[in-house]
Amino acid sequence: MLTTPHARTLGTLVCLGLLLSATVSSLIFGHIPVSLEMLINSLTDYDPGSLEHLVIHSERFSRTVTSVIAGAGLAIAGALMQTLTRNPLASPGILGINAGAMFFVVVGATLFSLTSPSQLVWAAFAGAATAAALVYFLGQEAGRGVSPVRTVLAGVAITALFVSFAQGLLILNQDRFESILFWLAGSVSGRELDTTLPLLPMFGGALILALLLSRQLNLLGLDDEVIRGLGLRVGQVRLLIGLVVIVLAGTSVAMAGLIGFVGLIVPHMARGLFGTDHRWLLPLSAIIGATLLLAADTIARLVIPPQEIPVGVMTALLGTPLFLHLARHVRKVS
């Protein structure tokens, strides 16, 4: 663990370097390879007649931006949920929030013909909030409050329920199946900047609020009586954190679909390197989450070219063994 300010600053610079490398790799690797020189030329002297320039500007820029935002959003949401519930297995994917958002998006698209990003993102927020409320209610243990084990079991059940409902709707509405299928597997392919940019204000506002709550988050590991004695309004802080999680997870699902395990494993990676201080944990989780999703998407393009594996499959391949490891070594998150 990096404990000194100098070591943490150096570690942050290394993580930023990895993020930059992953971003460049996302722009140059794929079915149509692009050289670094060609990438620079496309930025400084764009030629619409060049196939490589066209691929970079029309397809890879948008999926790179989507990967960065979705990866950062899911990672921060996971870190917040683990602190809020004091459960190291908490994440938007495990606790059903992603599945709830995805189900409401499918309902909006299939039953109400919603197509614009602004419409779908509100559907995603509603689904994320509904799933969070259900999991919180089902995770309660009489006389003891929220139980980590019951919460995880409730999240798994809610995820299975919403995914099954979504698949059933798509089977009944074959005309919408192709356009909605990517939400089930998780994909950043085919996203356009025109659909991503309108979501940035909400995402940015939630991110800033999460960073402003860093000091309060550091206190949530203490007992509630101690926290109240320090003058912190626990209920208000938890409500704000819940709203931030819903916005971040809903935005990520609206952009990239059902991508699991990023919100689970990335906070543990950041916590293992930088400790539990949320002033470091949250921004580093965002950087690592963006890097991880960029790397997963790049690898997904190269495994069986010209076909692409959905990025949600790649994150699942990485996240499943780590989830099993965490499940065997559950400890309270401080």
From TrEMBL:
It is a multi-pass membrane protein. The chain crosses the membrane at residues 61-81, 93-114, 120-139, 151-172, 199-218, 239-266, 278-296. Its main location: membrane. It is found in: Cell membrane. GO terms for cellular component: plasma membrane. It holds the Pfam family FecCD. GO terms for molecular function: transmembrane transporter activity. The keyword Calcium does not apply. GO terms for biological process: siderophore-iron import into cell. It comes from the Bacteria. Keywords: Cell membrane, Membrane, Transmembrane, Transmembrane helix, Transport. Belongs to the binding-protein-dependent transport system permease family. FecCD subfamily. This is Transport system permease protein.
